[in-house]
Every structure is written in structure tokens, then in C-alpha cells.
Amino acid sequence: MSVIARMFPENPVLVKEMRTRMRGARAYWVLLGYLGFLTAVLLFTYSSWQSSVAATGTGASDSSETGKMLFNVLLVCQSFLVLFITPAITSGSITIEREQQTLDMLTMTRMTRGAMVGGKLISAVSFTALLLITSLPLVSICFMLGGVDPAMVISTYLAMLMGSFLIGAIGLAWSSVCKTTTVAVLLTYLTMLFFAVLMAWAVGTYVMISQSPMAIGGGGGGSMVAFSLTESWCGPLFLGIHGFEYMGFAVLSAIAGILLAAVAMARLETWPDRRGGLLRGLTTLVVVVQAAACYTWWLDRIYGVGAAGSALDPAVAALCVPVLMLMVLVPVFATGELHPIEARNFGRYLLSGFTPRGLARGRLASGVPFLLLLAVLCIGAYVLVFACFGKVSDVLHSASLPGAMGAAAAPSTAPAPPALRQGGYTGTIRSGGNITVYRNGVVVSINGQNVVRAPAAPPATPLTPTKPASIWESAGDFPQAVLVVLAFVFGFGLFSQFLSVAFGNRWIGIALAYLSMVVILFLPVLYGIASNSYEHSGLEGGGFLDPLWAIGEMTNTKAPDAGLPFWLLGSVSWIVLGSLSLLATVPFVARRAMKSSVVPYEELVINV
Amino acid sequence: MPMIEIQHLRKEYRDQSNIKVAVKDLSLELEQGDIFGFIGPNGAGKTTTIKMLATLLIPTAGTALVNGIDVVRYPEQIRSIVGYMPDFFGVYDDIKVWEYLDFFAAAYRITKDKRPQIVDDVLALTDLTVKKDSYVESLSRGMKQRLCLAKTLVHDPKVMLLDEPASGLDPRARIEIRELLKELQAMGKTIIVSSHILPEMEEFCNKIGIIESGEMIVAGDVNTIARQVRGQHTIEIRVVDGVERAEAILLGMTDVIREVKVTNGMRQLEETPTEAARAQILQRNTHGVGGGVLQIGYVGPVDEEYRVLATLVQAGVKVRAFHTPETDLEDVFLRVTKGQVA
To answer: What number of other Cβ atoms are within 10 A of residue B77's Cβ?
Structure first.
């Protein structure tokens, strides 16, 4: 007992929260309301099924379908409830202490910030766990009807629990930043909305891409992102390991949740900058693991044994996944406040960001260096995954490495013929436990069983992509994609840095950086709508600035727009834009250096 | 080594675009066992200074050492030797008194087996034992204040920072807090108490500092300050007989006495009292009438005070008591401050 107690030192915050959570009637009312709502939904669905059975006369034969349907209804309702209840608990957990004026006394204790944040998060998640466990008896009705197996229940419940952990951590992170509970709750739900929109955008791209190759995100990049993201979250294959469904989601939520809890922890420290190394390390972990999960899932389609699905895009499009994440991260990391003392020797200060010590300190100078390092790591992971499949030499012409279906349909010449893309919907739809594979708008298989007899498979041909004439083809390939990614991070990073220095406020800098990103993403679309054709929106509408588009263009088999290839145009534009931003920063830095200082003590101690 | 050593401490706030200075160039040294009364009008910078010592605010410049440890560089170490009681604080809902204290004891990493004893001890010290199982929010304001003090004591801190511990309390609760502070003083703790109410400080502080607009105007030993401020210190002389005679003699000692006050009426000396005035008094009644109390403003060296007594006794004045009364802090305060608020 004492050994265990020593291994897991007790967490005072957790003990206190656990003691007080269930006191009084409130917690029981929440439980009652939660279960009451689920029961009502279930009863309604069940009785409507029963009346339809009575009307049509169909009986037990489709009861397993109904079992699945009821389970899905329960799942959706519970997900919504859990996703709204957890942040409601956590987003107030630190701001309430601020409002009650208890935070100072808690800060003064010897408790680590990690223990404080961890205690609050775990207590909130354990309440969610209680809600989930109490709902288990309701699932039993699905067992009675069939169609649901215990493994499915366990994996979905685990996914919901980890999802609530992630969302709880988002609430906690906002709670540590905001002054009042109202603002923290609002921002938490807005963040959830932001990610919902982002996902909708990815899915929307995916759908649009199947109709038009020139939609948002260009060529095939968008569909690749949407496809591999959803598959790496919900599918049973994660990082090349065959596990249970939603395993990827559970693992990624866990890491991302820890990252956000660390953000909250750092905000409570006397010196948040000292935690820069931890935050950056965790961010790197989340990004690289997510990117690698998408790469492995994709390459498994190309090289793997189970290459049964369909694929739209050549392998190089997988680099769109880290690009998408970098788009979200650049404004956060590249912005910051500049102290007069840092501004006084700006050149040397910026260079100090490239040292390991500078990277660990989390100041403005090391923002762009960190993002470049992160981009390099993501690209390195891409090469590493190829190496794991034993195909490292394919990296250099990965733009001509299509997914399995493309290879099967066009065995001799890569890349895939346009016919494959211009058809109807091609891909896999997963709803509940069903996996439906579509090809060119036709249902090919449901749950692995062929519905339409597929045309006789052409003789299996080894995947030997034809060597392109030159690596520097106009459409581009891996080296060009690397250039695009690094140039984008460099240019957009320095631009965001400029914004935050120019306005002297980090939050304004972040907001403006996101705004300009939205402009970059949607300007080509607007141009396309205005000119009634998407043909030239890539070039004339500025689509080449969107790195997703520039990479997507490499997967495009159509002849590119006349003129320079997008990768070159995009990279040069971003490098020029970044250099100009850096130059434009200088006068603002000089003005900042003139300001008399509210210089934190630490800066004086370390820098002088 | 002094227990608390503050040198040139400065704190600036950025309020929109203009910079406000809450504390400018504050220096202070306190030995172990000192009870320091931090006096100043509201908004003078008392709370800011205390929060900087408590590692809750980062000073803009200057150093502050507690027990030789820098508060800015090693906040974690400071937290284990300092107990802080904020001026405004809340309590958690749905928690009992003993749970509240147990929570803080655990947060100070006191092991589970020692905690019940410590909780009982601090409850006994703060006279809250009967409330052990009550809910915290049901306590009266004075009890909450004592509970907060109890919470500050769970880790047996060497230094206590008490920000307005008696504000908003009724007289009885105020006296209870005062008694408690006296007990802590007896336990050898170094205490900084801030207040804008003076009489409660006089009783137990051995050092005071007066702060106004972020500047420490005077700081040091209570009596020394009184002297610095007035340029003199008061000696009270009670005589059984011959009060007028004593007055006349004292008025004659113009080199060391600036002021003579008799219980009924006061005669203030001009720079040089005229010889005629003295003679007049001496003539009126050479043997004095009855007893009385005289207060003199003494400006001579402290170790020469006995000469005044000796002179009186030699002249046949029957002296019953000769002592320095407790300083009137309010008088000091009013003389020193200008009534400005930062």
C-alpha cells in the first residue's frame, strides 16, 4: 500500500474536487437529466421501430440493423452531451478560483502546477466517466436486438472518454488564460466550433474534389487530408498497428489533451516561458504522430497487403496533412510580445532563437525556428515511413505513386488517368459499424462484401512507377513539395511575427494571421465564383499561395496553367513575402526599443 | 543574516499605454522575530509589496530576499517558508473546515499521517476546534478570517505576510485576531502586517514602516521613528507633590527640553523662554501644589535622560514615575503623510 502511495503521490486538488463534486443535489440532478434524456430518446426510437415493424410486418430479421441503429443514436446523443458537459466543468475551474479569490492562496502552496491542472482535469473527466458508465445499461437493449458487439461498445466508449479528456483540456487551457468564467466558456465552445468548421471544410473539400479537381485546396490535397485524417482517427489501423476502431482518435486525443493541460500549467507558472520546451515538445509529438499516422495509412493503401480500398491521390499529397496542422500552428507560435530589452539588440536576439536554449525558452525569437524544425521533422517522418515500408527510393517520385485503386486501374502508366477522378464519388464511407466502399459513384462493397461484381481485376502488376523525365518537372515532386512547405512556414511565420510586433499585441497578431490565412484559402474560390470558372483561379486568383493547392497541383495530371509551376511561384512568393515582413518589422522594433521598459526582472537577470 | 531583505524594489504596471508605478525604490531589512507594521493609506503600495514578497507578482526591478533566498528566482523555495494571507479571499463551496485545512496541508506536501494532528493544532490555536465539522461557508466573517490564518499556519512558516488581517471585523473579532498575532509573535515568527488602522498596530509591532504613493517614508523601530518624526521623544513624569515647581525647573532646562505639558493646561516654550517668565512661576509658589502629570518633549541624548530626574529629585520634587509612554502612532502618521494616494 505504501509503495503504491509513494508511486502515485496523492493530489490534493483531485481529493478536494472528488469530495465536493457529489455533495449536494446538483450532481444527482445532472445524472438524472442525462439518463432521462437518453432514455427518452431510446424509448422514442424503439417505439417508432416497433410501430414500423407492426405496420410492415418485417420482424426479427432486421433486428440487428435496429440494434446498430439504436446504438448509433445513443452514441450521437451521448457524444453531444459529454462534449458539452466536460468543458462546462473545466472551463470554469481556474477562472472560478480567480473570481472567488482563492487562486492566490492555491498558488502559494508547494503544489506543482502540473498537479493542480491534472487534478482538475482528471476530476472533470471522471465525472464524465461516471455519466458514461451509468448509461451502459441502456446499451443492453442494443445487445438484446443484436448487431452490436462488446468490442464496439468498449472502443466507442473509450473514444468518447478520450474525446471528453481532449475537450476538457481545451476548456482548462482557456480557463487558465481568461479572467472570467463567461469568456472562458465562450472561447471553449468557439474553439470546438472552429474545429467543427475545419473538419467540415476538410470533408467538404473531399466531396467537392470528387466533382471538380480545381476546388478549394487544389488538386487532390484536400481530399487526401480529409480522407486520411478521418481514417487515421476512426479506422482500426493506426501507425501501422491493427488495433480497435477509434484507436487513433483515442491516442491522439490523449496526447493533444496532455498538451493543452500543459498549456494551462504553463500559464499558471510564475515564468511561463520556462515551460516553452515542454509545450513545444508535446506539440511536436502531436503533429508528428498525426502526420505519421496519415502517412502510414496511405502507404499501407499503396504497398500494404490490405490494399483493398480506393485512393484518389498520389502519395506526395500526404504532405498536406502536416501543412494543414502547420497552418493552424504558425499564428500561435510565430507571434509573441517583444520586450524593449529584446528589441534593443534585435538581430542577435533573433539568432538566439536558433540555439537549443532559445528554442526551449518559448520567446518570440524562437517561434519561426521552431516551426521550421517542426516542418523538417514532419518531412523526415514522411521519409522514415517510406523507409519502414522498405521503399525509401520511391520518396523522390512519390507524386507518381497513387493509391491501390489507381495503380490497379492504370497499371502501366502512372499517375492515374483523369478518368478515375472525374467520375462520381470514390472512397469509403463509414457510418456506425458499416464500411461502404464507393467507386465512381457506385457502391462497390459493404463491410468487405462485394455488392456489385467488380470488373475482373487486371493482372496484378508490380508497383513500379515510371521514372519522371526530370525531378524538376513543372508539376513538381517531393523535393519541390519540401520547398513549398518550408517556404510557406518561413514566409507565413515571419508575416505573423510582423503582425504581432507591429500591433504590439500577441492576440491581435494571432487574429490577423488567421484572418489572412482565411483570405489565402478562399480568395481563389471567390475568384472562381466571380469569373464563373475555376480554370484560372489557381494562378490568377492566387491559389498558388495556398501550400495545399501547390502540393495538390503536383498530383494533378492535367497540364498546369501556362507559365510557372505553382510550387515555384508559391515558394518564391512566400520567401519574398517573409523577407519583406522581416524588413517591415525593423522600424516597429526600433520604436519598441525606444520605449521605457516594463522589463520583467528575469530578462534583466539573463540578458544583461 | 536578516530574515527579510528588500533592496530598491520597484513595481510598474502597464495601464493601457501609460505606466503606473505602484512601488518605487523600497528598501527594508527585518530580523527574525520582528513584527513589522506596514502602514499607509489605501492604494499606497502595501498589497503590491506583500504580493511581491509572496512570489505572486514579479518586481520590475530590485531584489527581495527572504531567509537569504531570492523571491524571483526561487519562488518554489520561498513558498515553503512563507505564509500569506491575502486582504480579500474566498473559500471553496461544499467543503468542511477540517477538509479545507487538510487540503492546504496536503498542498504543502505534509504527509498524510501528520496532517490530522496539524489540523487539530491550528484549529486549537485559532480557537476554531468546535467548528471542525462545519461547512466553511457557514462561518462568520471573523471565523473565516481566523480560518484563513489557520490555513496560513499549517506548514509552520518562518515568515508570515498578513495583508489587512483585521479589516472589516467587529471589535471583538479584531481583538481576537490581535491576541492571535501576539501568540504568533511569542512563537518567534517574523510577521509583516499591513493595515491602514493604526491603533491595532501599536500594541504588538516592534517596527513600523509608513508608505505613501509607493515610497517608504519612514521605517524602523517604533520609538526611533517617533523621535525622528518629531525630533524629540516624550517622557512622562508623575509627581506626588510640587507639580508647579517641577514645571518651573523643567522649563529652565532649555538645552534638552523643548516642550512641557501639564495635565491642566500646557505651556509651550519659545525658542528661549524669558527669564522673567521663569521667575514668575517660581515666585508664585515655591513649594508647589499637589501632584500632577508632566509630559516633556525631550531632545537630548537618550542616556542623559536620568539628569532630568536627578535635577527634579534634588530640588525636592516627589517623583512617582518617570517613563516613556507608548508612542502615539496616529500622530506620527499624520505628520509624515501628505494625504496623497498613489
So the answer is: 16
Distance CA A263, CA A257 (A): 10
Q: What is each CA distance from A496 to A368, A451, A517, B78, B209, in whole angstroms?
A: 10, 51, 10, 39, 49
Judged on CB neighbours under 10 Å (0-12, 13-18, 19+), B30 is buried
Compute how many other C-beta atoms are within 10 angstroms of the C-beta atom of residue A418.
12
Q: Which strand (E) or helix (H) includes residue B50?
A: helix B46-53
Quick check: A17 and A168 in contact, CB under 8 A?
no
Chain length of chain A: 608
pLDDT digits (tens, 9 = 90+) for A237-284: 777 777 777 888 889 999 999 999 999 998 888 777 778 888 899 999
Interface contact A598-B19, CB threshold 8 A? yes
Cβ distance B73 to A107 less than 8 Å, yes or no, reads no
Which chain A positions have a beta carbon within 8 Å of B155's beta carbon? Answer: 110
Dist CA A403 CA A389 (whole Å): 15
Record the cell numbers describing residue B154, joined without a space: 499549517
Q: Which strand (E) or helix (H) includes residue B208? A: strand B207-212
Within 8 A by CB and 6+ apart from A209, the residues are A215, A217, A220, A222, A223, A312
CA distance B78 to chain A (A): 9
ipTM reported for the complex, 2 dp: 0.76
pLDDT at A209: 54
Which three three-digit cell numbers place residue A211?
Answer: 466533382
Residue in A closest to B87 by C-alpha: A101
Nearest to residue A230, comparing CAs of A254, A208, A205, A255?
Answer: A205
C-alpha A51/C-alpha A47 separation (Å) is: 6
Phi–psi pair at B319, nearest 5 degrees: -85, 130
A506-531 vs A478-503: helix crossing angle, rounded to 10: 130
CA atoms within 13 A of residue B29's CA, in its CB half-sphere? 4
Coarse DSSP helix, strand, coil percentages of chain B, rounded to the nearest 5 percent: 35, 30, 35
CA–CA distance, A515 with A223 (Å, rounded to integer)? 23
DSSP class of residue A359 equals H
A319 neighbors A298 (Cβ within 8 angstroms): no
CB contact under 8 A, A10 and B112: yes
Query: What are the start-end ranges of the H helices in A335-475?
Result: 340-343, 346-352, 356-361, 367-388, 404-409, 418-422
Which of A19, A108, A598 lies closest to B14 in CB terms? Answer: A598
Cβ atoms of A491 and A368 closer than 8 Å: no
Residue A416 has pLDDT above 60, yes or no: no
Q: Which residue has the higher pLDDT, A234 or B28?
A: B28
Instruction: Please give the interface size between A and B, counted as residue pairs whose CB atoms are below 8 Å apart.
Output: 90
Cα–Cα distance for residue pair A289/A415, rounded to 1 Å: 28
Pairing of strands B266-268, B257-262: antiparallel
Pairing of strands A427-431, B318-323: unpaired
Task: Tell me the shortest Cα–Cα distance from B338 to chain A, in angstroms.
Answer: 28
Write down the pLDDT at residue A430. Answer: 44
Place of cell 526551449: A360
pTM summary value: 0.78
Residue B55 CA to residue B76 CA, distance in Å, equals: 9
* Interval A163-197: pLDDT, tens: 999 999 999 999 998 989 999 999 999 998 887 88
C-alpha cell recorded at residue B103? 487540503
